[in-house]
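Technical annex, item 7. During the second reporting period the consortium partners agreed on a shared format for inverse folding records so that results from different sites could be compared directly. Each record opens with the tokenized structure and is followed by the designed sequence. A conforming record, contributed by the partner at site C, is shown below for reference.
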């Protein structure tokens, strides 16, 4: 079996583009991957095509060898979009390998460790603040509307959810990667901290003490600002406060300052970047993104985290194929705490795959079909091709 073609699809995900890859073989078998992040709707698919020369004409089952060849060839421009493009090829190769052997990918790495995976409703209220019409949802005009979103998650069977700092109104705003909320220059004023206490307090009152609540502040605040926020939220028993940081010492400073658990890591790729954070025990829960760095790289991060007595929580805010890829990771790793899943999504998301996942009681079943367990519907992907001018999810 030899690879004869690599194709990419840039699909309208509603708020931002989703990226898919297809690696085709001379035996008629196709492997699919969902990869990357929304920032590069033109550049990332082009990078995948630049890297296609490393796989065309080769045996697709030598996945690690092909990945290593790409890594060595791009060593002067590692990480970021380069690693995401490599993931676009590598993920499709794992799907091919699983299909060729008739087994799910997780069985190739010793799984499954579990039959189902707990998930949390991510970006609760956040997407609706930016674009409620896309989801047929009510605008968030009051804190009561935001609390109602939390109740909706519980009624849908979730036992955990994650939100951002949201400011109901006409229109609603939020502090996320889109910076649509109040100007803050990475500072948290007393007013903003009071708002966070009001928001999380309203959500906690709405769902009670048994539901796990996470708050994500992304890259928006440095430890000097995040420390008083974490301390102010201690009475609400957050499942975690999530923050991205490029300095392991700064993150360790935050973690040492509060009993509020800290989650971080989605900004990192491969064990080379995670290792200094693990050595400092700078986080309580490790975010790891399969779509950003590829499957085996993510598995190695999980294995390294196990050595440091840390559990992972896959970062997953893409389409359903990404969910299946992340589920295969959780099935192949022993140290999994919970997994991210977006409940609010583009109305055509289910049509993009052959078998959409189902959330039941806050869990998704581990896939058992060969490869990832679902296939991209190429016709639907082409029908919903991305036509935006930017990959920014809040535009």
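Designed sequence (site C submission):
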């Amino acid at each position: 079996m030899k690879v004869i073609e690599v194709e990419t699809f840039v699909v309208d995900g509603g708020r931002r583009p989703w990226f898919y890859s297809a690696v085709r073989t001379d035996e008629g078998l196709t492997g699919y991957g969902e990869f990357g992040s929304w920032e590069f709707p033109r550049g990332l698919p082009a990078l995948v095509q630049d890297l296609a020369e490393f796989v065309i004409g080769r045996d697709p089952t030598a996945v690690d060898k092909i990945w290593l060849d790409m890594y060595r060839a791009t060593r002067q421009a590692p990480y970021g979009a380069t690693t995401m493009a490599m993931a676009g090829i590598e993920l499709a190769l794992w799907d091919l390998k699983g299909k060729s052997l008739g087994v799910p990918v997780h069985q190739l790495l010793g799984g499954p460790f579990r039959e189902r995976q707990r998930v949390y409703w991510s970006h609760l209220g956040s997407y609706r603040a930016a674009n409620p019409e896309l989801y047929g949802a009510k605008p968030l005009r009051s804190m009561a509307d935001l609390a109602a979103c939390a109740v909706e998650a519980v009624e849908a069977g979730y036992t955990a959810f994650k939100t951002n700092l949201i400011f109901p109104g006409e229109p609603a705003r939020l502090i996320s990667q889109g910076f649509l909320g109040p100007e803050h220059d990475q500072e948290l004023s007393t007013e903003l901290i009071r708002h966070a206490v009001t928001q999380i307090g309203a959500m906690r009152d709405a769902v009670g003490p048994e539901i796990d609540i996470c708050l994500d502040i992304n890259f928006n605040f440095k430890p000097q600002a995040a420390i008083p926020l974490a301390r102010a939220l201690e009475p609400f028993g957050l499942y975690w406060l999530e923050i991205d940081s490029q300095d392991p010492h700064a993150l360790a400073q935050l973690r040492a300052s509060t009993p509020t658990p800290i989650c971080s890591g989605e900004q990192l790729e491969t064990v080379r970047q995670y290792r200094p954070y693990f050595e400092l025990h700078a986080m309580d829960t490790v975010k790891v993104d399969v779509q950003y760095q590829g499957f085996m790289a993510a598995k190695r991060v999980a294995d390294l985290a196990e050595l440091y007595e840390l559990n992972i929580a896959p970062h997953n805010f893409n389409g359903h194929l990404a969910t299946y890829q992340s589920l295969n990771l959780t099935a192949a790793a022993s140290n999994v705490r919970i997994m991210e899943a977006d409940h609010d999504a583009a109305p055509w998301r289910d049509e993009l795959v052959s078998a959409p996942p189902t959330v039941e009681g806050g869990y998704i079943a581990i896939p058992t079909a060969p490869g990832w367990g679902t296939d991209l519907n190429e016709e639907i992907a082409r029908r919903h091709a991305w036509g935006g001018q930017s990959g920014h999810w809040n535009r």
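The longest strand covers residues 3-12. The two ends are 43 Å apart (CA to CA). All partners now use this format for quarterly exchanges.
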